Amino acid sequence: MSDIVLSAGVRANLLQLQKTAEVITQTQTKLATGKRVNSALDNPVNYFTAQGLSIADRSGIAAKLRGNFGVFAVVEQTLYRPSSVTEKGVSASVPGVTAFARIAYSPPDRNLIDLYVDGGIGVSGLVPHRPLDRFGMAVAYMRISNSARNLDRDNQFFADLPSPVRSNETLVELIYEAHLKPGWLLAPYFQYVFRPSGGIPNPNDLTGLSRIGDAAVFGVTTTLRY
Prior knowledge:
The chain is an alpha+beta fold. Helix content is about 20%, strand content about 35%.
């Protein structure tokens, strides 16, 4: 039997018919499954996007990320020095009033906290007859990253429960350092924490639907040097 020779035009028409049949098959599969993308051959980018699963889902697989980094800045400033003080600088041990501020940032897709900001004021040596005593006040703010908040929302979806979504934590602190005797330091302090850990579920609530309450912390530290 002799070979069948097809002209270039006929071959082009057959290839076009083959492609049309493939498109029809793909369309029928989409209609049957309800999925726009069913395999990596349909559309590799959309396929792997569609198959991306949250780790909140038991079948989800955590994404692998390479590397990490963070940037930060620190500012310190002397606000007041008694005229009797000749020493320069921003040392908190020198009588006067000093202030500081700090800010840090890290990528939100691989860090629980992506933004941290704090600042405070320190007063040293201004209490009559107590030149070594110091008083300080500070405020700190920590923001839960978008990736972590989205994970909390995914947990809500898969568990079908209105569990808390973390957002941020704010801390206010007051401290007084009293030098009672040479070598003996006593420092009572007070802290108030708004939304601890960003507002995690209350561990005492078995339903897991309420967030943990704000926290007030009273404490004292002491240092002995000999």
